[in-house]
């Protein structure tokens, strides 16, 4: 074997020696790791099974009872966390409902329903439809601003004349163009009443209320008078004078007596209507009593008739 062969053999032997040393070191390292794992496992078991002792009253007892590490050089385990300082979990508070100052508090079932589409009839029908829409808007509070009121109103028009009137205004809203009728809700209401009011109805109401007289009970007369007065813009004094003229003569006489016996200057139309109904009822009761009474003898006939007439034709001032 030559010199080169000897050098190669020497190098191989050195490598084999290095591999043996590495193998020995690896085995030692594995044994060390296994020992460490066993130590850690034993420490975990000891910590789980360990029961903490209460704190001693003196520092001497604390020192004697202080826990030591499992092996020399190990750090003693730290004290368990105190539960007294641990904050308790808080239950999340439910957000408060925002208080509403609008009509939104009205139960859904109690709110007014949207009125049926306007049928295009003039006069009283148009006024009733407008009042229903006003109530509908009122129940929903601030949900309807000026623009929404006008749009909802115009889209609630039926076929025919009502639809023809609303169509140009709806186009103005869609194209965002200005119009005198669309300045605000009040402007649209006035335009609607102007378009669908009965121009002759007021004149007819004036004629009918001047012709109206009491033929039956005062209650029926008052109801008819109320219906006609809704079409007029008279002041209250004119309505009171017209109301009194239509009453029966005997009722007018009793009301005239009332003006003499007491101050009626502050009587409203409603008060005069109430008094007229009460007086008419008492006079009717008096007539009924007179028809039921029968004189027992000629000597008492005149006296009895006078008493009956007095009951039928006189109303005490306390009644008014």
**Helix/strand order:** HHHHHHHHHHHH
Distance between the termini: 157 Å
Work out the helix count: 12
Helix % is 55-70%
Please state the CA-atom Rg, rounded to the nearest Å.
53 Å
The coarse overall form would be elongated
> What ranges have pLDDT less than 50 throughout 5 or more consecutive residues?
51-57, 98-102, 299-312
- Total beta strand runs: 0
Which structural category fits the helices and strands?
A: mainly alpha
Q: What is the mean predicted local confidence, pLDDT? A: 78
Biggest sheet character: none
Determine the strand fraction and express it as a percent band.
under 5%
Which secondary structure elements does this structure contain, and how are they paired or packed?
Elements (H helix, E strand, L loop, with lengths): L2 H47 L9 H6 L59 H16 L6 H9 L6 H14 L10 H12 L4 H11 L6 H12 L6 H10 L3 H13 L7 H24 L5 H16 L7
Q: What this model shows, in words?
A:
- This protein is mainly alpha-helical.
- Among the domains are: 104-196; 201-319, no CATH class.
- It is 59% helix and 0% strand.
- It contains 12 helices and no strands.
- The protein has helices at residues 3-49, 59-64, 124-139, 146-154, 161-174, 185-196, 201-211, 218-229, 236-245, 249-261, 269-292, 298-313.
- α10 crosses α11 (269-292) and α11 (269-292) runs antiparallel to α12 (298-313).
């Amino acid at each position: 074997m030559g010199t080169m062969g000897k050098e190669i053999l020497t190098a191989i032997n050195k490598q084999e020696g290095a591999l043996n040393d590495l193998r020995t070191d690896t085995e030692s390292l594995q044994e060390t790791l296994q020992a460490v794992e066993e130590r850690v496992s034993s420490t975990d078991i000891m910590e789980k099974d360990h029961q903490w002792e209460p704190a001693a009253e003196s520092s001497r007892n604390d020192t004697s009872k202080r826990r030591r590490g499992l092996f020399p050089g190990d750090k003693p385990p730290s004290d368990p966390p105190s539960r007294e300082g641990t904050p308790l979990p808080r239950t999340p508070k439910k957000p408060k409902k925002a208080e509403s100052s609008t009509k939104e508090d009205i139960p859904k079932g109690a709110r007014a329903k949207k009125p049926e589409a306007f049928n295009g009839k003039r006069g009283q029908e148009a006024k009733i439809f407008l009042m229903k829409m006003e109530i509908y808007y009122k129940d929903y509070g601030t949900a309807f601003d000026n623009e929404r009121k006008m749009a909802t109103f115009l889209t609630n028009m039926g076929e025919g004349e009502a639809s023809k009137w609303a169509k140009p205004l709806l186009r103005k809203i869609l194209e965002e163009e200005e119009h005198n009728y669309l300045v605000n809700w009040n402007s649209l209401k006035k335009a609607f009443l102007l378009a669908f009011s009965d121009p002759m109805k007021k004149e007819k109401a004036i004629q009918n209320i001047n012709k109206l007289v009491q033929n039956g009970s005062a209650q029926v007369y008052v109801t008819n008078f109320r219906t006609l007065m809704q079409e007029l813009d008279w002041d209250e004094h004119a309505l009171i004078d017209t109301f009194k003229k239509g009453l029966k003569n005997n009722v007018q006489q009793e009301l005239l007596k009332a003006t003499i016996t007491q101050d009626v200057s502050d009587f409203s139309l409603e008060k005069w209507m109430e008094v007229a109904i009460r007086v008419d009822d008492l006079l009717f009761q008096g007539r009924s009593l007179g028809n039921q009474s029968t004189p027992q003898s000629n000597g008492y006939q005149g006296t009895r008739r006078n008493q009956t007439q007095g009951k039928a034709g006189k109303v005490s001032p306390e009644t008014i």
